[in-house]
Inverse folding.
């Protein structure tokens, strides 16, 4: 059971291993609880209890995908030392490795496997004569107090915390299994348009080399469209997803700033690495709008397409869920990716 805590909608999935296959047994979309200035563990406990009920209370183990504001994710180079020591290095030297002071954070690390070049693993990079070889590592960190609150909320809901993972890595996890050849052999960008924010992750031959969060999401697009059309929020949401021709110019005024921010991330990567991003894969509820995809394509000058994060899963969904999965699928990207962390 994996839960993606969104700003407006919580998305949850139930995955089950069946031999070599993974099956999607249930999913749920629930209105997220409204957080005031202070995070409420009690409010989250009640919410997680409701999520578990919506999934049929199949297990006590839960994986939580936490929001873009709650975790930092970076690719770094670290010495060839045990992961436990890597965590301490980052904790004591966050400014040196992550370019910011992160007091009271805890960290975890994933070591990227060496790339294969002509059938052989590439040698780990060194920095200076006689230096210890470096490892490419994906580092993630979160405040200890926030993790304590999440764990308390989970336990108070009668559940058991299995994994707590940054939601940012969810799309990459799901994409690896949904499009394994593209994941392993190409340089692509994954864009997940959330309610308040949009994340972009650039994958280079299976490595997450760059990630960025842009403070423009589906809510920004819908609110701007509602103002321009002098319509209600619900009417603007329908026009946005429903590709209303009358809304085209108003939508474009909202999408262009997002496209420019995302294009800046591509430019930074392409300038640093001297190679282009070949395709952009977009997820999130807003990705259902073909009109918005076309506008992002025009602004970013790279092909933009949706993708199915559930395509590699065996479908074991009941009734109406099976009918609606193709429509709902793009919203489940982070939840599916978080679930894969537990496997």
């Amino acid at each position: 059971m994996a839960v993606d805590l969104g700003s407006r909608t919580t998305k949850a999935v139930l995955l089950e291993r069946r031999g070599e296959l993974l099956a999607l047994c249930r999913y749920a979309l629930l209105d997220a609880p409204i957080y005031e200035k202070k995070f409420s563990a009690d409010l989250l406990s009640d919410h997680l209890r409701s999520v578990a009920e919506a999934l049929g209370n199949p297990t006590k183990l839960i994986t939580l995908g936490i929001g873009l504001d709650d975790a930092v994710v970076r690719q770094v180079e670290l010495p060839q030392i045990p992961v436990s020591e890597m965590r301490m290095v980052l904790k004591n030297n966050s400014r040196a490795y992550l370019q910011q002071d992160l007091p009271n954070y805890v960290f975890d690390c994933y070591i990227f496997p060496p790339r294969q070049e002509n059938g052989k693993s590439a040698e780990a990079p060194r920095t200076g004569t006689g230096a210890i070889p470096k490892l490419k590592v994906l580092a993630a960190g979160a405040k200890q107090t926030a993790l304590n609150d999440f764990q308390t909320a989970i336990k108070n809901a009668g559940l058991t915390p299995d994994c707590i993972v940054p939601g940012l890595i969810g799309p990459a996890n799901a994409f690896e299994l949904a499009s394994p050849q593209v994941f392993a052999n190409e340089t692509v960008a994954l864009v997940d348009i959330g309610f308040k924010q949009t994340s972009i992750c650039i994958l280079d031959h299976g490595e997450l080399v760059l990630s960025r969060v842009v403070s423009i999401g589906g809510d920004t697009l819908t609110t701007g469209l509602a103002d321009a059309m002098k319509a209600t929020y619900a009417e603007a949401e329908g026009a946005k997803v429903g590709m209303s021709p009358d809304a085209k110019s108003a939508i474009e005024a909202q999408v262009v700033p997002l496209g420019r921010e995302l294009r800046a991330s591509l430019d930074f990567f392409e300038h640093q690495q001297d190679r282009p991003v070949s395709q952009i894969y977009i997820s999130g509820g807003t990705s259902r709008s073909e009109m918005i995809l076309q506008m992002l394509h025009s602004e970013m000058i790279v092909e933009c397409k949706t993708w199915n994060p559930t395509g590699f899963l065996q479908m074991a969904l009941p009734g109406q869920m099976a009918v609606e999965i193709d429509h709902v699928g793009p919203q489940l990207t982070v939840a599916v990716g978080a679930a894969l962390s537990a496997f």
User: Anything to note?
Assistant: The radius of gyration is 20 Å. Residues 248-273 form the longest helix (26 residues). The chain has a mean pLDDT of 90.
